Automatic annotation (TrEMBL):
It comes from Lolium multiflorum. Residues 24-41 have a biased composition (Basic and acidic residues). Residues 291-318 form a coiled coil. It comes from the Eukaryota. Residues 171-304 form the RNase H type-1 domain. This is RNase H type-1 domain-containing protein.
Length: 419
């Protein structure tokens, strides 16, 4: 496998263009004679210097700019099976590391048909070879520029035609998974809802054989869901759940220190490594109802809830029946009371007592011996609704009406007769 990169120094020490034409299986016959001679010379000079890597280069001056073409050959068999976009990322990594002393203080412009920088930054988790390359390239000032915007595209096209490589970024349509776990006295269960890229849905409700905690059930749901996705051949997946702790631990936002959760965390991480793309999203429970129903059905909690709801409905009906009976009894008591009730009626000029309002008011001086009635007053006017206007015995009128239920007939006492 050979990586070809063109380094163009715009101003010495300040700016460099890296024009990557591609990566492919390449033979010595495709190299220029000068390159092959340099390879042989380097091998004879120090054959044990880099047993797995050979590099050579040729330079030329065009329009006042020095253009250097580096050939980086890798002898590792595993790297020949990389994806085309990953081969381009590997080319950029080796180009920057091999001439690090030149590019470290310069602005680097990467010219390529595919945006390798965006591809590396789009990885959801910093892991594997992409994470290693991203960490190594973080010390460089790198900027991407499409190949069509470069005047020197002719040279890159020539190299591209020689090695006969077509690199294109492939877009992968992701699966979607909703998961949830449920734990109750009747048992434990997990629920998964899988949605294919074409919109087909697959529901799974599995009862766990042994009792566990809520967090363990959530991890079991994720593990089983990822296994089902791998069996279906999924390469990219978006995972949604309402467990903030589990999702934060899998994205390494939180550290998993629980002894019961760590083995499950390791199992999930191993399954995550088998996907090309995986991303986690936290959602509230109200948006995860389908997976929640599947988990509750598996654990038996849903049956308990339905039984409780049925009992509540029965109790509600009984409560309404009791309320109607209370209303009927109150109506009977009211009719019996009204039969014995003698309405108070007063005429103009009658003397009456008025109750001390509000009822139960005590005078600070007399205390418990405070009077409950005061007066007498004279009825001045009879109004509708058993209301009366009163006046004092000297003729001064009350400003407001008084309800008849707070009045009673005044009868002179023996003391009044003596006066």
């Amino acid at each position: 496998m050979v990586g070809l990169s063109q380094c163009i120094g715009r101003e010495p020490g300040f700016s460099f263009d890296i024009n990557m034409a591609g990566l492919a299986d390449h033979h010595d016959e495709d190299k220029p004679e000068s390159s092959r001679s340099r390879d042989k010379g380097e091998e004879e000079a120090d054959p044990h210097d880099q047993p797995q890597t050979m590099k050579s280069g040729e330079s030329s001056v065009y329009d006042g700019l020095e253009k250097v073409v580096f050939y980086l050959r890798r002898m590792l068999d595993a790297e020949t099976r990389y994806l085309e976009i990953e081969k381009l990322c590997l080319c950029l990594f080796f180009t920057c590391t091999k001439i690090q002393h030149i590019l470290l203080k310069a602005e680097i412009v990467v010219i390529c048909k595919s945006d390798v920088i965006k591809h590396m930054l789009s990885a959801p988790v910093l892991k594997g070879r992409l994470g290693k390359w991203m960490f190594a390239l973080s010390e460089f000032d790198i900027r991407y520029q499409p190949a069509k915007a470069v005047k020197g595209q002719a040279l890159a096209d020539l190299i591209d035609e020689r090695i006969n490589t077509d690199v294109a970024a492939l877009s992968v349509r992701a699966w979607t998974m909703f998961f949830d776990g449920s734990v109750c006295e009747d048992g434990c269960g997990i629920g998964m809802l899988l949605v294919s890229p074409r919109g087909a849905t697959y529901s799974f409700s599995i009862r766990l054989s042994s009792p566990c905690t809520n967090n363990v059930a959530e991890y079991e749901a994720i593990c089983k869901g990822m296994e089902l996705l791998l069996d279906a051949g999924a390469e990219a997946v978006e995972i949604f759940g309402d467990s903030k702790l589990v999702i934060s631990q899998l994205t390494e936002e939180y550290k998993c220190e629980s002894g019961s959760l760590f083995p499950l965390w390791m199992q999930c991480r191993e399954l995550m490594a088998q996907f090309r793309y995986i991303n986690f999203h936290w959602i509230p429970r109200t948006q995860n109802t389908e997976a929640n129903d599947l988990a509750q059905t598996a654990s038996g909690y849903k049956d308990v809830v339905e039984e409780a709801q049925r009992r509540i409905e029965d109790a509600t009906e009984l409560r309404l029946w009791a309320l109607e009976k209370i209303k009927e009894n109150k109506a009977k008591v009211a009719r019996a009371y009204n039969k014995k009730l003698k309405p108070k009626e007063f005429q103009v000029g009658d003397l009456v007592w008025e109750a001390v309002l509000p009822l139960g008011t005590k005078d600070k001086i007399y205390g418990k011996w405070s009077p409950n009635w005061h007066g007498p007053y004279k009825v001045d006017q009879v109004l509708k609704g058993n209301a009366y206007m009163l006046e004092l015995l000297d003729g001064r009128k009350f400003p407001v009406a008084v309800n008849g239920q707070h009045l009673k007939k005044y009868f002179p006492s023996m003391w009044d007769d003596q006066q």
